[in-house]
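Exercise: predict the structure of this protein bound to adenosine-5'-triphosphate.
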Amino acid sequence: MFLKQLNMYGFKSFAEKTEMEFVPGVTAVVGPNGSGKSNVTDALRWVLGEQSAKSLRGGTMEDIIFAGSDSRKPLNYAEVSITLDNETGSLPVDYSEVNVKRRVFRTGESEFFINEKPCRLKDIVELFTDSGLGREAFSIIGQGKVDQVLNSKPEERRTIFEEAAGVLKYKHRKKKTEDK
Ligand code: ATP
Ligand code: MG
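Solution:
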């Protein structure tokens, strides 16, 4: 599975329709301070189901909608969509390509789509459970997270590694069985 395309409209600083294409391998996004590099990872996190405005570096969800500039009016909604290659079947759906889209309006209303079909946020979260992607996964490591890993106590650091390796859920299950 790999990320093929990211589309943004009205998301943070991306007032214009913006399309980014990716190929397998390493992609580096470079640019001056404040040019929107972190906004790209925020967009990925959001479309994967992030619900916390704080972890998207905002106060409320409205803060992710383009707020306007000297030359442009604010927009009424933000939209992000990603296209993932699913040739290897990492995602539990019968499509070789999966498109996930999320939209939020200033009114607070939200819309979610999987391959253009309306769905719930829950469906998106479930789609990515156990895929290594998703809002809780370590596929996106923020700047703060690196500090957290370096400064945490050994036991906490171990938990981070266990979660990344996918063994945490088995530990939880083992404990449940032992508690019975
Ligand atoms: P650095 O190199 O400092 O980490 P960066 O390239 O990661 O910078 P970002 O944090 O992605 O930069 O982008 C910050 C910019 O996004 C700021 O100029 C900010 O004004 C703009 N921005 C954030 N939210 C919105 C919004 N809702 N509407 C318009 N612009 C926004
Ligand atoms: Mg940044």
